[in-house]
Specification:
By secondary structure, this protein is mainly β. The chain has one domain: outer membrane lipoprotein receptor (LolB), chain A. It has one helix and 15 strands. It has a 15-stranded mixed beta sheet, with helices on one face. A hairpin with a 2-residue loop joins β4 and β5. The radius of gyration is 17 Å and the shape is globular. About 5% of the residues have low confidence.
Length: about 240
């Protein structure tokens, strides 16, 4: 294996780890009914200022059941060569404010990842069958989807790509106006990090998030790892 191949493989591994940690940062204390009037939240994904993909959430609500479907796609190139590609779809379902199921399927350069999560009402816990974790999880855990502002109050998250569980710490940094897609919002700026400081660098959570109370959504997420990454809300549609 030559040095160029090793270099490419390291980048592929890096981008997949951070997609798991970043894109998909729901719990029993969540408030999904805050979103019953939402139809669509669409985000653009940029790396070093260049548009590389999208993440789109579609909401439907009927008889106190909320369903949120997500589709995400992006592509990373290095020296003109495509080294990393993500195509992911997921569906999460709530009865009132309780998560009852979550299912996702992701292809990373044609390698399949998945999560099948169900609420076990008798034991009051989640049952998870994932590509990297099979077992149970407490109801306080959050699946880290960026549409859900309850992420900002969560102590831990379940990776919706693989089902693994990660502890986190979220702190309020301050309040400021930011401009997203030519519109100015007053936001709260949060820092989300791994609880365990000894977590390996390539697996650490280390993100900045801006939340707007008026729209009740996270408008922007950024991080710095081998480039400057941004997830910006591009469009919001309501019923």
């Amino acid at each position: 294996m030559n040095s160029y191949t090793i270099y490419i493989n390291r980048h592929i591994k890096f981008f997949f780890v951070f997609f798991i940690l970043f894109f998909y940062p729901i719990n029993s204390d969540s408030h999904p009914q805050d979103y019953i009037k939402f139809k669509t939240i669409e985000m653009e994904i940029l790396k070093d200022g260049k548009l590389i993909g999208f993440s789109k959430y579609n909401f439907s609500y009927k008889d106190q059941f909320l369903e949120v479907k997500n589709e995400t796609e992006f592509e990373v190139k290095l020296l003109g060569v495509k080294i990393f590609e993500i195509k992911s779809k997921s569906v999460e379902r709530y009865n009132k404010n309780d998560l009852i199921s979550y299912n996702s399927e992701t292809f990373q350069n044609d390698k399949r990842k998945f999560v099948n999560l169900e609420l076990n009402k008798n034991k009051k816990e989640f049952k998870i069958i994932g590509s990297s974790y099979k077992g149970n999880a407490d109801l306080h855990n959050v699946i880290g989807n960026w549409w859900n502002h309850d992420l900002l109050q969560a102590d831990s998250q379940i990776s919706p790509l693989s089902g693994s569980i990660k502890e986190q710490v979220v702190n309020l940094i301050g309040k400021k106006n930011i401009t997203v897609n030519n519109k100015t919002y007053f936001t709260e700026h949060y820092k989300l990090k791994s609880k365990d400081p000894s977590t390996p660098d390539n697996k650490k959570l280390d993100f900045d998030l801006w939340y707007n109370k008026e729209e009740n959504i996270i408008l922007k997420i950024v991080y710095n790892k081998m480039g400057y990454w941004e997830y910006n809300v591009k469009k919001i549609e309501k019923y």
